[in-house]
Design a protein that fits this description.
Layout (H helix, E strand, L loop, with lengths): L18 H13 L14 H13 L3 E5 L2 H11 L7 E5 L5 H8 L3 E5 L9 H8 L4 E7 L8 H11 L2 E5 L7 E2 L2 E2 L6 E5 L12 E5 L2 H12 L14 H4 L14 H33 L13 E2 L4 E5 L5 H13 L5 E2 L25 H7 L2 E5 L6 H18 L2
Parallel strand pairs: 2-3, 2-4, 4-5, 5-8
Antiparallel strand pairs: 1-9, 6-7, 6-10, 8-9, 11-13, 12-13
Helix pairs in contact: 1-9, 2-9, 3-4, 3-7, 5-6, 9-12, 10-12
The structure holds pyridoxal-5'-phosphate.
Pyridoxal-5'-phosphate binds next to helix 3 and helix 4.
């Protein structure tokens, strides 16, 4: 009987903001003091507190809260020294804000291929890193897939690459007990609604580099009030920079920070909850003929807030029929192989503003059959089992 029932839950519905966050937000609204620098002498605003707490969570010295992860990435690139015309390496499987941040910094993107487990092709990286004019590398842990970071760091060190990590999907994740986002010179996180903490919009930048964070703080629009930051280096670091670095106005405000602080306390618990759902889905999907979830490296301690799988050897028409069949039953899957950019499934072929980009055979082949599903925490484990049943039924009739 249940196979005739549709799945009716919403794939984009997050859990509500917790009471502690709502109460604090109301307090701030009543005070009118939403701007991060609108604090009394000696008072630490919510934004400064969030920065301290996130730096501590990450085991990093410094943190800056920004308007978005995209703006954090842009500030990180600028503060790391990227100048117009510089080349920035980036894995070709990522989301539009990543190439957007590179373009915003005036840089040229050099795409690096991916391999069948959706992570960056380290052989291609090594070849491209060897070019004498290549110094910067934006690594996007896209959809939470973490490459072999030991090997990746060897390549960065051997070729003097400055690494910036895009951790929009790896907040709370590890590679071999070391936090994702603690490998590079800087790392950027998103607190946009569909990521691991939700403030509507928002980004966090962490680093141990005093010069980089001082620049980022000034770039973010500190109006010479950087003293009010508490996850920052000594004031003298700002002296030589304060008139050299422009204000790009991409701050976070106290209201968002107030929503995030209690979420940070619960982040690790939430990550476990995601992984329970992920494992249920992964086990189920791997039992379905025609569907493959590539094995993940045991050292990769990911956060399963979404799941990807490949419909290996299926043609475009079959994939479309499969996706349509699942959608009819209420199961909303995204497809990275779409010719036209739809929703969040942007492929690098839609970044035409960079001009001609190279044809990456493996990336094209892999994205052409890759599907993507969100796993909101509003889904129960039974929901996950129900979804598997629907997908299995559709696969049985549609896939070859
Ligand atoms: C969401 C996302 C970003 C950017 O986050 P915003 O806060 O929306 O700017 C960056 N990279 C990846 C992989 C993302 O999914």
């Amino acid at each position: 009987m249940s196979s005739n029932k549709r799945f009716t839950k919403d794939f984009t519905l997050q859990e509500p903001i917790c009471d502690e966050g709502i109460e604090k937000a109301l307090e701030i609204l009543k005070s009118g003091k939403l701007h991060r620098y609108n604090v009394d002498p000696g008072e630490q605003g919510e934004t400064a507190l969030l920065e301290e707490e996130f730096a501590a969570y990450m085991g990093k010295k410094y943190c800056l809260a920004c308007a978005s992860c995209g703006s954090a990435m842009y500030l990180a690139l600028k503060s790391a020294g990227v100048r117009p015309g510089d080349k920035v390496l980036c894995n070709a499987y990522t989301l539009a804000p990543v190439p957007g941040a590179i373009e915003n910094a005036g840089a040229a993107i050099e795409l690096v291929d991916i391999i069948d487990d959706y992570t960056i092709d380290l052989t291609d990286l090594e070849t491209k890193a060897a070019a004498p004019d290549t110094k910067y590398f934006m690594l996007s842990h896209m959809r939470g897939h973490i490459t072999n970071m030991d090997r990746l760091m060897e390549i960065c060190h051997a070729h003097g690459l400055v690494l910036i990590e895009d951790c929009a999907h790896t907040m709370g994740a590890f590679w071999d007990k070391k936090k994702s986002g603690s490998f590079g010179k800087a790392a950027c996180f998103s607190t946009q609604t569909y990521k691991h903490m939700n403030s509507g919009e928002g980004g966090l930048l962490v680093t141990d580099d005093p010069d980089l964070i001082a620049q980022s703080i000034i770039y973010s629009g500190s109006y010479m009030l950087y003293e009010r930051h508490t996850a920052r280096p000594d004031m003298d670091v700002f002296e030589s920079l304060k008139t050299q670095v422009p204000n790009y106005s991409c701050r976070m405000d106290n209201l968002r920070a107030a929503l995030l602080r209690p979420q940070l306390k619960r982040l690790d618990i939430q990550c476990d909850r995601w992984n329970k759902r992920y494992l249920t889905l992964e086990q189920g999907l791997n039992k379905i003929k025609g569907i493959t979830c590539p094995p993940r490296n045991p050292k990769e301690n990911y956060v399963g807030s979404s799941i990807q799988f490949s419909l290996v050897n299926q043609d475009e028409e079959t994939i479309q029929t499969f996706l349509g069949g699942c959608l009819d039953q209420g199961v909303e899957l995204k497809w990275f192989g779409n010719k036209e950019p739809v929703g969040f499934t942007s492929a690098y072929s839609s970044w035409k503003y960079f001009g001609e980009l190279p044809y990456l055979h493996n990336t094209r082949r892999i994205l052409a059959v890759m599907c993507d599903m969100r796993i909101p925490l509003t889904f129960t484990l039974d929901d996950c089992k129900f979804i598997i049943k629907i997908i299995a039924d559709v696969a049985k009739t549609v896939l070859k």
